[in-house]
Amino acid sequence: MRLKNLLITVFIIFLVITSCQSDDDGGSVVPPRDRTEQQITDQDSLMGYLETHYYNSSLFEDGSNYSVSDIVITELPKDANGNYLDLPNPEENTLLISDIETHTTEFQETDYEYYILRINQGGGVQPNFTDRIKIKYSGNLLDEEVFDSNVNADTPFDLTQVIRGWTTVLPSFSTAESGPIINPDGTLSYDNYGFGIMFLPSGLAYFNVPQTGIPAYSNLIFKFELYNSDVLDHDQDGIPSYREDLNLNMSVFDDDTDEDGRPNFSDQDDDGDGVFTIFEDIDEDGDPTNDDTNNNGIPNYLDPESTESNQDNS
Predict the structure, then answer these.
(1) Helix, coil or strand: residue 43
(2) What backbone phi and psi angles, to 5 degrees, belong to 111?
(3) CA distance 19 to 212
(4) Rounded Cα gap, residues 37 and 65, in angstroms
(5) What single-letter DSSP state applies at residue 186?
(6) Least packed by Cβ within 10 Å: which of 66, 120, 152, 267?
(7) DSSP assignment of 16-83, as one string?
(8) CB 259 within 8 A of CB 271
């Protein structure tokens, strides 16, 4: 009897612990809604936010380097009946709806509308959607609750491992014109970097999968400073990962020439012919994509019938 009671107690403790762990991970996944219908709902919410919130636009007119912490977004004041009043100090502030750019993209067979406040384009290069970037950011919900941020500008992010909104927006900005400069306190400084805000519908974020601090179907706002980018070749096959997007849909996860379950960008033998892609660079110019020895219009690295190797004469 004591053993039975002990087992019951242990089981209850186990349930409590696993329940707490689930809460820490953001909660249970809810069934997915229709993406098109959810996008309509998200668009209404985002437009309502943009029409009723303003930012301190005059601060950024001198072109100096500013930080995400300098951007202040404020809701319009309301009267006693809850009706929105006019914009205060219009010479210093601007409604978000007046300055944002509206863009569309297709993802998961759904047309999405998202919005960008482009405060500074940046003076460097524009990243590819598969690059590694260094960025400072702060993310919040429409109720202004901050769910994530970083203060270390030297933290790298692989754009193949982030939400679709980041993959879509950040390549439209440029990296810093110069930097980093190591400051006396050990922090890093950059000059003329991409700087702005993205306003994302849930379908370009986490959709129905809750995260810590982010409920399911949350629209997200990210303020960011884009500092640096490095072109990645994830499988070291001599082809930059962004060039392995064969169907040009801004995703490298659905390009699998040999259908072996490994996308080309992470597959060292893209056509499955037994010759590593990097060895199908027959002219050894560092680019396997321009070698077509049988002149059939298919590069060797994607043609299982072409098994020539630059190692044959070694």
Answers:
(1) helix
(2) -85, 125
(3) 14
(4) 40
(5) S
(6) 152
(7) HHHHHHHHHTTSPPPPPPPHHHHHHHHHHHHHHHHHHEEE-GGGGTT-----GGG--EEEPPB-TTS-
(8) no
